Backbone:
């Protein structure tokens, strides 16, 4: 599907392509994955946060949320009806993809990168303290083992995001937001690819969100993975269309956007 990049979107599109190129390069450069590790943990928090938010929206409660050192995660919630279980199970991968898409749209629609970073820091901090610490401590004692790393990682991420928002230049802050968006999108697609192969009838049984969907509906897990992949590309296509479209004239008058400096001279 072809996209026409508007003239005012070209500087930001270039930044997005650089962020995507850097993200992909980190996968192939030896030992460079350590540089992408914080972003991978960030995406895991967003993935697990998607499960937690979906549970709350469907009237369920969140018992615990944990993130492990290998960047895997677990979220335990009470189970409602079939619709509730389907929404909660789907909200992980699609939630990460949607969050990445929202970040793209926000920075394109003139929301300051610092605001986006502070909002993301607040989200990570709430997920960490409320569902990663207090809920396990005062509810699900079986999840206490996940508290230490979840707490350290969540607080470190929140501090890092606040530091970038506070001390980095507008261009650097915008680049970091673009990098977070790209990481959410690419990791969601990569995880869906892995879950697709794990959902094969010939693969060993491994607990996944797709398996939860099968248990809730009786429909094979691999079918649900295909549905998620189609939905993920739909979300990405919509976000890219909004990203490359021309911005309203009202935005062009703003002076605080890092990519509008050329137009001001």
Residues:
């Amino acid at each position: 599907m072809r996209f026409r990049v508007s003239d005012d979107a070209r500087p930001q599109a270039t930044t997005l392509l650089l962020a995507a190129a850097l993200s992909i390069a980190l996968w192939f450069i030896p030992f460079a994955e350590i540089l992408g590790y914080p972003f991978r943990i960030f995406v895991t928090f967003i993935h697990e946060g998607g499960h937690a938010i979906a549970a709350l929206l469907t009237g369920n409660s969140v018992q615990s949320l944990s993130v492990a050192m290998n960047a895997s995660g677990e979220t335990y919630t009470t189970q409602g009806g079939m619709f509730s279980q389907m929404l909660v199970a789907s909200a992980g991968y699609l939630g990460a993809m949607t969050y990445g898409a929202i970040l793209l749209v926000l920075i394109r629609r003139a929301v300051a990168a610092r605001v986006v970073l502070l909002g993301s820091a607040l989200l990570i901090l709430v997920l960490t303290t409320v569902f990663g610490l207090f809920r396990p401590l005062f509810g699900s004692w079986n999840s206490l083992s996940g508290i230490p790393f979840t707490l350290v990682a969540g607080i470190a991420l929140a501090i890092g995001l606040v530091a970038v928002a506070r001390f980095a230049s507008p261009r650097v802050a915008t680049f970091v937001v673009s990098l977070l968006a790209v990481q959410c999108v690419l990791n969601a697609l990569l995880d869906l690819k892995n879950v697709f192969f794990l959902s094969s009838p010939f693969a060993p049984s491994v607990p996944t969100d797709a398996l939860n969907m099968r248990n809730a509906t009786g429909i094979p897990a691999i079918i649900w993975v295909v549905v998620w992949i189609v939905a993920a590309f739909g979300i990405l296509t919509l976000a890219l269309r909004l990203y490359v479209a021309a911005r309203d004239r009202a935005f062009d008058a703003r002076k605080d956007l890092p990519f509008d400096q050329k137009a001001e001279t």
